[in-house]
Design goal:
eight-stranded antiparallel barrel, 1 helix, mainly beta, 131 residues
Length: 131
């Protein structure tokens, strides 16, 4: 009888523990922070010129040249999949730019448009992939 009670208690504990087991958690969205490389172009042309950014935690963005040297810096924000940035290119253009893009978490890409300053009519397109 004592053995039967022991088995019954063990079975009750196992059923309780298994019944309380949580489902797999929802996938966590990957952080956007990191190095992005890709191409940009003017107007509506297919992006063809090298472009790279280091998107840092805390809203800091740095433009990088093909040698990995910082050539500009600014700020960024992200709401949902929408990415916005304003940054100043130090070398060679000494100009301010704004970026609007959509972040595709599964492809790890930023695809969007860029403009000079806050002008909505001049600029072009870009596509960057997280390394």
């Amino acid at each position: 009888m004592k053995t039967l009670k022991s088995y019954a208690l063990t079975l009750l504990v196992l059923v309780t523990l298994l019944g309380c087991q949580k489902d797999d958690p929802a996938p966590v969205s990957e952080s956007i922070a990191g190095i992005f490389e890709g191409k940009y172009d003017n107007g509506t042309k297919t992006p063809d010129f090298f472009w790279s950014f280091e998107i840092g935690a805390g809203g800091v963005i740095r433009e990088m040249n093909s040698a990995g040297e910082k050539i500009g810096n600014g700020i960024w924000t992200k709401s949902g999949d929408n990415f916005l940035s304003t940054y100043h290119n130090d070398t060679p253009y000494n100009a301010t730019y704004s970026l609007k893009a959509v972040y595709n978490n599964s492809e790890r890409t930023l695809t969007g448009t860029w403009v000079y300053g806050n002008n909505d009519s001049d600029g072009g397109t870009f596509k960057l992939t997280k390394k």
